[in-house]
Design goal:
Helices cover 46% and strands 15% of the residues. By secondary structure, it is of the alpha/beta class. It binds pyridoxal-5'-phosphate.
Length: 499
């Protein structure tokens, strides 16, 4: 399997090379040249297999330059009982007869990012050996909150790799901030940026795309890579849980073998739902992918009009990991929908960079509408959904998952589509405990309580144990306290690397 650029501007490379580079140096993202297909017979043979066994099947199709033994080692190092607090890694919770929730938050940092970031460092350290490099790898991460901690946990103390995380100052929850700033490990750096997530992401992308600067870093003995979902190694592991969820439902007798289902995905950077799309293209029986946004609804507008327009106010919400106006992975989706026309993608993304907007053609939109439906939920509706779902089902969801549920309820009302549906739960409710507790008990419930008191209160009313990754945070020492302006990202990198 070879990987090509979405912008038709780079030679084909092996997966190890694509993972090591993170993104195409001259702009563009690596994508598989062809999408492998798992036929029904092969799919049926996977029913009843463990998460690791399903992972082995899927990953092997894409990482053809890794030996089966190497892939097994990566899987064993990631999906185990030390890292995940559930034997299934991603268990399904039945909400009602036709709706299941895929809990993707059982990893060490309580958000779905762990599903990929526990295994990706294993891919990367092997990629470095395969491709051969005499340089130290520097992972630059822009985070809206959850990627940062998941990447820090995945990469800390990995030899030959340094990781620097940039997050929006005062743009993440207290728990998210403490998770990051208390990280130990001798190769981890965390920096708060006075700006929003897009500022962080743009600064990091600019550094990646600056060939001169990368030459300069190389002279100093450093090579950049990315743990954001622009890196193929981050996206690939996410395909696995769509297969896993389907197979588990067949196994439980909830879905007939071969029966189509819907997936609802709370979306920000478009990575998670893109993985669902790859699963669909690989032959997973999918009826619709439902893309759920919060009030920063650039994607909803795009899917309904064909115009992507980021020229709008950035709104901070209770689902901060979805507060994004530039969804990087849309580029990969458009590349597929536009029939691998890299020149078109270069033109559209060029317009996005220069004018903040672009419009895609009719054929591409038709292709998209066949599989994808989109909606958004406002703040009030999101909080209402948390309360209502808790009241009706005794099940508590976080703010991001609640956006997905609300959009799904609206979708059913509008379309009457009763196809069996799986909703991704992207974070543990404890990770966004203040908003969740407020939604259930009213504003009074959080007043005068710090975030650790609200954690305990949430545990009390739900009868759920506090997620292990969040428990002792208030007793840990803060080890990272850099705060910089949004134009100082490069300078911070140099200061940290001592160059
Ligand atoms: C990252 C994140 C999302 C958005 O996922 P994308 O892959 O960026 O679309 C949604 N919910 C939570 C909790 C997240 O951490």
């Amino acid at each position: 399997m070879k990987y090509i650029s979405t912008r038709n501007n780079y030679p084909r490379v092996d997966s190890a090379e694509a993972i090591k580079m993170g993104m195409v140096p001259s702009g563009g993202l690596f994508v598989p040249e062809e999408i492998p297909v798992i036929d029904n017979k092969r799919l049926a043979a996977l029913a009843g297999k463990s998460y690791g066994e399903v992972a082995r099947e899927i990953l092997g199709l894409y990482l053809t330059d890794y030996s089966p033994g190497e892939i097994d080692d990566c899987i064993a190092g990631a999906y185990n009982q030390e890292n995940f607090d559930h034997p299934d890694m991603a268990p399904l919770h039945k909400l009602d007869e036709g709706t299941y929730i895929l809990e993707l938050w059982h990893g060490p940092t309580a958000a779905f990012k762990d599903m990929a970031l526990q295994i990706m460092p294993h891919f990367l350290s092997r990629a470095v050996t395969k491709v051969g490099s005499d340089k130290e790898i520097v992972i630059l991460v822009a985070t809206s909150g959850d990627t940062g901690k998941a990447a820090l946990e995945g990469f800390k103390n990995v030899p030959g790799i340094k990781i620097i995380v940039f997050y929006p100052h005062e743009g993440v929850s207290k728990v998210q901030e403490l998770q990051m700033t208390t990280t130990d490990g001798d190769n981890t750096y965390v920096v708060a940026v006075r700006g929003n997530f897009d500022d962080c992401q743009n600064a990091v992308k600019e550094i990646f795309g600056d060939e001169e600067y990368n030459k300069f870093l190389a002279e100093k003995g450093y090579e950049l890579s990315s743990a954001n979902s622009i890196n193929w190694g981050r996206l690939l592991p996410q395909i696995v849980y769509y297969f896993w969820a389907y197979l588990d439902l067949v196994n439980k007798g909830a879905v007939e073998p071969g029966g189509k289902i819907n997936f609802v995905v709370p979306t920000g950077n478009f990575g998670n739902i893109l993985a669902a799309y790859y699963a669909y293209r690989m032959g997973l029986p999918v009826n619709k992918l439902i893309c759920a946004s919060n009030i920063n609804k650039v994607l909803t507008d795009f899917f309904n009009t064909g115009i992507y327009d980021r020229n709008r106010e950035f709104i901070k919400t209770a689902s901060p990991s979805m507060d994004i106006l530039i969804s990087s992975n849309l580029e990969r989706f458009l590349f597929e929908a536009a029939g691998h026309d890299g020149d078109k993608i270069r033109e559209w993304l060029g317009q996005l960079a220069s004018r903040g907007m672009f419009r895609v053609d009719r054929e591409t939109m038709d292709e998209i509408s066949r599989i994808l439906s989109a909606g958004y939920a406002g703040e009030e509706d999101t909080l209402w959904t948390i309360r209502e779902v808790f009241r009706r089902y005794g099940y508590i969801v976080d703010t991001h998952t609640a956006v997905g549920l609300k959009v799904y309820f609206d979708y059913v009302k509008q379309t009457g589509d009763r196809t069996f549906t799986v909703l991704d739960a992207t974070a543990s409710p404890f990770k966004f405990n203040r908003a969740v507790l407020e939604a259930v008990e009213g504003p009074g419930a959080v007043q005068g309580r710090d975030e650790f008191e609200t954690l305990r209160e949430l545990s009390r009313i739900t009868g759920m144990e506090i997620h292990p990754g969040l428990k002792a945070l208030d007793r840990k020492a803060v080890r990272h306290d850099r705060v910089i302006g949004k134009d100082e990202v490069k300078a911070a990198v140099e200061e940290i690397l001592g160059i």
